[in-house]
Design goal:
The chain is mainly beta. The protein has 2 domains: about 55 residues, no CATH class; about 160 residues, Jelly Rolls (Sandwich). The chain contains 2 helices and 13 strands, in the order ααβββββββββββββ.
């Protein structure tokens, strides 16, 4: 038996070496140990049962080549904090008591005489947020009787992106006249929160309060807080990745 028969030439190996030499000649980068190779894929759904749909790798993740990612929308939503879910202040707590003319439904009553009543909360900006756009905090509230006057709400807040350092809190206020009718669901909006550079998973902490001694607060009776919310623009139903758009 000849030497050639004892050491057969592997044609595929020769071709692979030639391809590698040509690739190096044109400046291509050979795969690294950390690279994702097609040969390393397993248990991955590449095709979809629905006709004309196929997953393609865009350099970062697998996406449906026939569908824009993420699913885009154009509109508004509301990050809402119900009043009774907010934390009451130990030193300046609003009263939880019966609201409306009759019945047993309770709400948070903010004093209209000389007291400061306040609540606290925190939350995360949701993944459907249109990053970089302004946020619009607001309160839903009710007057408890038919007297006239103005109610002023104060909001102290701090908001930063993930892995950022909180700065000095910002305090804003919003004043609205009562209607002269008890138990009307009213809404007043604070000045906008500057959304420049804000992104999903930004964390907001806040203190919401009524200072009945404020010159702009001329309504002498209790008011009921229904909820605190933040209107925001959205551009998708979520995010492509767990912590980024």
């Amino acid at each position: 038996m000849s030497d050639n028969q004892n050491s057969p030439v592997n044609i595929l190996s020769v071709i692979a070496i030639a391809v590698a030499v040509v690739a190096l000649g044109v400046g291509a980068v050979l795969p690294q140990a950390s690279d994702l190779l097609l040969s390393g894929l397993h248990d991955v759904e590449i095709t979809d049962a629905i006709a004309n749909q196929m997953l393609v790798y865009n350099g970062t993740k697998w996406v449906n080549q026939n569908q824009t990612e993420p699913f885009t929308v154009d509109g508004w939503d509301d990050l809402n904090f119900p009043a009774l879910s907010l934390t009451k202040s130990a030193a300046a707590t609003p009263t939880q008591g019966v609201i409306f003319a009759s019945g047993a439904i309770e709400g948070l009553l903010f004093n209209g005489d000389t007291l400061v009543n306040e609540v606290y909360g925190s939350g995360e900006i949701l993944h459907c947020y249109n990053e970089g756009t302004d946020l619009y905090p607001h309160v839903h509230w009710m007057a408890t009787d038919t007297t006239l006057g103005n109610i002023t709400w104060f909001l102290e807040y701090n908001i930063v992106n993930e892995d950022s350092v909180y700065g000095t809190p910002i305090t804003v206020n919003a004043t609205q006249a009562v209607t002269g009718v008890a138990w009307v669901n009213q809404m007043v909006e604070f000045p906008a929160i500057n959304g420049t550079n804000l992104n999903i998973e930004s964390q907001i902490t806040f203190r919401l309060y009524r200072n009945a001694t404020s010159p702009s607060d001329t309504y002498g009776s209790d008011v009921t807080l229904l909820s605190f919310g933040i209107h925001y623009q959205l551009d998708s139903v979520g995010s492509s990745l767990k912590s980024s758009k």
